[in-house]
Each structure stands twice: as C-alpha cells, then as structure tokens.
Amino acid sequence: MAHAAGTYRKLRLMDPTAMTRAISRLAREIVETEGGTENLALVGIRTRGVPLAQRLAEEINRHEKVRVPVGVLDITLYRDDLTTISHSPVLKRTELSFGVQDRNIILCDDVLFTGRTVRAAIDAVLDFGRPRRIRLCVMVDRGRRELPIESQFVGKKISTSASEIVSVTFRETDGEDDVWLLDRDEVKKTRTAPATSTRSVKKASKKAAARKPTAPPRASKKA
Amino acid sequence: MSASKPAATTKLGKDLLDIDSLTKDEIQLYLDTAESMWEINKRSIKKVPTLRGKLVANLFFESSTRTRFSFEIAERRLSADSISFTAAGSSVSKGETLLDTAKNLMAMAPDAIVIRHQRSGAPHMLARELPCAIVNAGDGAHEHPTQALLDAFTIRRRKGRLAGLRVAICGDVLHSRVARSNVSLLTKMGADVTLSGPRTLMPVGVEQYGARCVNRIEAAVEDADVVMMLRVQKERGGGLGYPNDREFFELFGLTPERRRLARRDAIVMHPGPMNRGVEIDSSVADGPDSAILDQVEAGVAIRMAVLYLLIGSSGEE
What is the value of ipTM here, to two decimals? Predict the structure, then answer.
C-alpha cells in the first residue's frame, strides 16, 4: 500500500487474517445484540465503510441465511469543516434504496477518531426518515474523540497520539486487506535525531512531543 | 454515469460566467456533482445543511420564472440564505448603475451573486469588480451557462452519454443565448450539433459557433438523437424575422411529421417558455418523447451543484 506522503509505517495493527476474524466476530455480535436480522440494515460511510458493510452482510448471510440490505452514505454535504477547506470535495452518490423508517441501522466505518464523521452520518440518515435505532460498527477505534460518540461494535481498540494515522485498507477499495499505524516523518526525525547524551535525547523527544503537528489528517483517515 | 477520474483534481474558477471558458473536465465535474444533488431532490426531506450561513443574492434585471425559481429552490435546498431582487421596484428604476447597485449589495457581504441582465457581459464586469462568486443566469444574447448544463444533464440521463449524439438546435438562433451556450458545451463534449433556422434569424458569422448550419429544419432534424427547439424571442424582435406565426410554424415549427424524421428514440427539448403553435406543436411538446419537464427538474440539481462547487468551501489556498 502506498501510504500517505510524509508518513512512515510504525506498527502493523492487523493482518488480513486478523481482519477477517474481526469481521466475522463483529457480524455475530451484531446479530446477537440486535436479536436477529429483522429490520436490520447496514449502512457504509464512503469510502471504506462500504466494503466493511458489504463484508458484514456476507458474514451474516453465511450464518443466518438472510440478506441484510446494505446502503451507502456520502456525508460530504453534512461535513462541519467544508468552510475550512479550499476546494469543494467531489460528491459521490448516496444509495439508501430501502426505507430507513423504523429500521435498526448499523452505521459502518473503517476508523472512529474524532466522531465528527459519525455525527454527519447520523444527520444524513435522519434526513431519510426516522430509524428505530442507529448503532455504530468500526474496524478500529483509535480514541481521541471530540464529540460524545461511542461505537457498539469495534474490531480493534487502540490509543493513539495526535500525530499518528490509522490506515485501514480493503481489497475492494485498495487491493489488499491491512491495518497499519502510521506516523509523520518529521516526528520520526526529531525522535531519532543523533544525540550526544541521554539527557539531550530525552529533551529532544520532549520537544518533539511539544511540536506535534496540529494539522488534521486526511479526510479518508477520518477527520 | 460514474464520476470521471480527472474531475477529482479539477479546480474551478471563482465564477460561472460562460461555457466558452470551461474545460471538458470542469463541465464533467458540474454534471457529476448534479447527479448527487438530483438524488437529494428525490428524498422526503429535500434539504441538506451544506451552505448554512452563506448568503446568495439573486439579481434579476430581466424577467424570469423558471431560472429564478430554480435558483431560489437550489439555494434553499442547500440551506443558504437568499435574497431576490428584480429590477422593477428597486433603485435601478431610479437610475442607479449596475456597478453601484452591485457594490452596495457587496457591502452586505453575499457569498455569491446570481445575475440575469439584458446586456451581454454584465456578469463578467461584476466578476472583475467584486470578490464574491458570480453566476451568470443569462446575459443578453451572449450565454446562459446553467441552462446548457441542465440541458446536457437531461440528455445524459435520457441517453446515457453526450459524445457522438446528433443534436439539432432549431429556431430563433439569432437571439438565443441558450443556443450559444449549448453549442459550446455539446461540441466540447463530443456531440455533433446542427443549427437551423430562417436566414433572418441566424446571426452573422454563425459558422464561428462551431456547429453545422442549415436553413431547412428537416435537414437538421433528420436522424437526430435530440431535437432542441428555441423560443422565438418576440420581445427582442424575433417576430420581425418572419411574416407571421402561422407561416413560421408551417416552415420552421416542430410538427409531428417533422419529429418523425428524427430517430425513433429521439428526445424533444425546449428551454421554455414555449410559444405553442409557433416553434413547436402542442402534441410534440406534450408527447412521450418530450424531455421538457425533465429539463426543469434538472435545473434545480444543476444550480445546487454550481452553488456547492463555487461557494461550498472557503476557496482559499
């Protein structure tokens, strides 16, 4: 995978097998918590919530022999940061062909970070009708929330620093299944800068911590 | 009808003034964005919060029903605030110049100004003078870019493509900004366009439009995939180009017989308002091939796309 420019791979969080197992577990948890598949619908948030929703639907079909409807949501028009970006993002279609009225909706996304994407997604779903309930399923919960939003179904939960990026890729969208923790090159440089004594190393890393970039990561990595 | 690759990196200018200065990628971006907007217009709650807190001023110095309504609906569906202004009953009738009117409006800090004006180039002048986005909603006999975009959107939805289609544009070409914008857009997108109309209603130098020109409507309509009729613009003197309405209809009107010269699956379009029995027969206008009401529906989606793309983001680098 070509990861974001200016970053390096720090740690592999999940390999393809781990992802498959996690999705299989999540599918069973969803059916158990929802008490079956009646009125259930999976809604993937573009871009990488979509393959997650589709795989969950396949898993549920394998165990329950029921095809749960899968929808696709583009939340661009509901974003709270449009006025801070320079060019209007390209819109893709939203496809919720089944009615959301009285449904039990499971929103699916790759990474749960600030919670702002999920807030936008909830608003978008509510514009289509009044679901009975909305729950959330994510591949990775990386913490650092800026809104009071929690996920009921989590593939892997980790704590991260602000400079780090969680990269989830799927076969369908990126060619391979993988989950990596990335960090910014500049952070690496300052942390591994040659040092003359242990004391200055400590100082350098403290400085690096203080100099953490404040720019938000790319939208696809969940702003 | 998927989004094309280059659209993702297409950067638009500050304004939408004419089709002539747009690239193929920019046109594609407007059309693809309108697909998403079209979907919003099918929901039970036809409103998104995208342009909350943005102000759009609609300046209509010339009468308009469809275009003004359509812009106002688009603004509301995107949650923008809008104020509309018509020349009658405003300070324009007291002799204020266009630029003074616009500069005074600018002091109220709109994010976009939608302008229709009887003078060609009026929106371009405002675009040079004012920092906000300017959208041309028709300027004199020059251009009507959102009409061409909605026409292309309608054709693409009905025919699945633009490239390679045979399009006949017939009638009062002389006074038609719609024709100008459409020829420019459709030829850029690879359609094969033929213009036709009485010699008296064809502009001097019409060959420069870049379309094939014929006089007899039959020659234009034959084997066409799309037949676009233009309104005879009597208020601009279009009525002086021929003896009477009856004769125009006999010689240049789209009758059911002439419609049959086009392809079986051809669609019939008209930018409105129609002069029934002059450029188009009622049975054709209301017939099964008519896409005239689709055009009106597409208008809202296109104008939503234009406003979203021009003022949805900060525009600052």
Answer: 0.82
